[in-house]
Structures are given as C-alpha cells and as structure tokens.
C-alpha cells in the first residue's frame, strides 16, 4: 500500500510462488487440447482395445489363431526338447501302423480329431473367461493349434481307411469313394474293429508286418538272394550240353566175324 497525496493506490507485486501458480493455470487452448486428447484416447482404446481386460481386437485374434495354426510345425523346431518330443510322436505313430499292418490307422485319425476338438473347446472357454489380454491371446492360440490337429487328421482319413481295409479291418463297402469328411466318420465307426485287428496283428504278425513295412520304404535289400529249400540238393558237377548229348548215345557192340 502506497499513499500519494490524499489518494491511496494499492498495487500487487507478484512473488516467485504466485508466478509459479499462475504458470500452472490452464488456458482455454490447453483445456481444448486436453479434452481432444482424452476423446482421441478413448476412441483408440475402443478400436485397438489397449486396456488389459481380456478383450483383444479382431486383428490380434486372427494373428494368434494363425500362430497356433502353424504351431505343430514351428514349435517342433523351437527347442531341442520339443524336437525330440515331436520326432518321438511321429516315429511312434509310424511304428504302430507298421506293427499292425495299417490296422491302427483309423485309431490315429480318431485320436487326432478328439485331441484337436478338446483344444478348440478349451480355447473357447478360456477366451470367454479371460481376465487379461495375455490370457485371451493364449486362448486363441490354443484354438488355432486344435484346428490344425483336426485338419491334419481329416486330410489323412481317406488313406487311413484304405490301409485299414487292406489290413482286414471292417469298413464300409463304399470306402474307396468316400470324401475326407465321410472317411473321418468311417474311421470313428471302424474303431472297435481296428482295435481288435491291431491287437491280433501285434500279437501274431508284428515281425512280418515290420518286415513288409521296411521293404515298402526301401530299408531292406531288394537284391537279396532267394532261399534254397533244404530238400533240394544242388548238383555237385556242372552238366555240359555236350556231355549230356554223349551220355544219351547208345553204345553199339562190335560185330562178330562170320565163320
């Protein structure tokens, strides 16, 4: 407060604290920008679903599903342990088919479809109950992996039915004309007969079946000499055509002189 004559003038001298408070006060421009940013963030959140609430965008769902779709191949080469596990499963399936002469082929198809179907159902449940985005991604990844198992099994169903029929498993008379989906159903229908025939083949003919399997894939020597029966005795001396001809000539006795 300063007094000049009879007039009192009051003036305000800002200090550092007041200046700092003034600088923090928002202007209209700042308020407009903050409101615009808030609206933009809300719009983007609804579009890309950046909130960690278990609800991911369609793009993320497709990406995770495709990743799971190729996982049976990619996961096998992701680590030595996965490679050994995958190779053991492949060799185990091939050995079972070889030991049974193809009778167990429908069993593998049915097992693949059931395993993949369970994975798809489990993934759907996880996706509907996911609490975080990571859980939702894992769910869609699992659905893709299950779809891959089902698809591969369906693609191999037709050849599996043909192998089973050759091995003596009871299948439909029209099995050769079935499509992939019909052949898959036929594999399920032939499971009882496939189990019975597989058990019989493993018990009685597994050695023979393995030998035939390795022969088909080219493991055994195709130029092996044929076996000679023990009853047949080979000739000790070679027979020439000239000797044979001479041995067949009759010996004529010499003529006696006339008296």
Task: Give a quick set of tags describing it.
two-stranded antiparallel sheet, 12 helices, 65% helix, single chain, 259 residues, 2 domains
Short account of what is shown:
The chain is built from twelve helices and two strands, in the order ββαααααααααααα. The chain has about 260 residues and is mainly alpha-helical. The protein has two domains: about 35 residues; about 160 residues, no CATH class.
Task: Tell me what you see in this structure.
The structure is a single chain. The chain is mainly α. It is built from twelve helices and two strands, in the order E-E-H-H-H-H-H-H-H-H-H-H-H-H. Strands 1-2 form a two-stranded antiparallel sheet. The radius of gyration is 43 Å and the shape is elongated. The chain starts with a strand and ends in an 11-residue tail after the last helix.
């Amino acid at each position: 407060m300063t007094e000049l004559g009879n007039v009192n003038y009051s003036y305000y001298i800002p200090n550092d604290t007041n200046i700092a408070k003034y600088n923090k006060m928002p202007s209209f421009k700042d308020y407009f920008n903050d409101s615009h940013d808030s609206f933009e963030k809300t719009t983007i959140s609804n579009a890309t679903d950046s909130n960690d609430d278990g609800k991911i965008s369609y793009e993320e769902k497709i990406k995770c599903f495709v990743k799971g779709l190729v996982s049976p191949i990619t996961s096998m080469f992701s680590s030595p342990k996965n490679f050994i596990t995958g190779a053991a499963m492949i060799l185990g399936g091939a050995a079972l088919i070889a030991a049974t002469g193809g009778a167990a082929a429908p069993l593998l198809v049915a097992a693949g479809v059931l395993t993949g179907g369970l994975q798809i159902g489990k993934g759907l449940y996880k996706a509907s109950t996911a609490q975080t985005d990571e859980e939702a991604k894992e769910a869609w990844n699992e659905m893709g992996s299950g779809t891959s198992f089902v698809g591969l099994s369906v693609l191999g169903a037709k050849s599996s039915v043909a192998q089973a029929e050759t091995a003596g498993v009871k299948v439909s008379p029209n099995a050769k004309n079935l499509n992939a989906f019909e052949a898959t159903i036929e594999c399920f229908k032939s499971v009882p007969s496939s189990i019975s025939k597989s058990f019989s083949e493993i018990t009685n003919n597994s050695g023979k079946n393995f030998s035939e399997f390795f022969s088909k894939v080219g493991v055994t020597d195709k130029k092996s000499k044929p076996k000679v029966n023990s009853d047949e005795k080979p000739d000790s001396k070679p027979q020439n055509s000239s000797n044979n001809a001479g041995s067949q000539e009759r010996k004529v006795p010499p003529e006696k002189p006339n008296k």
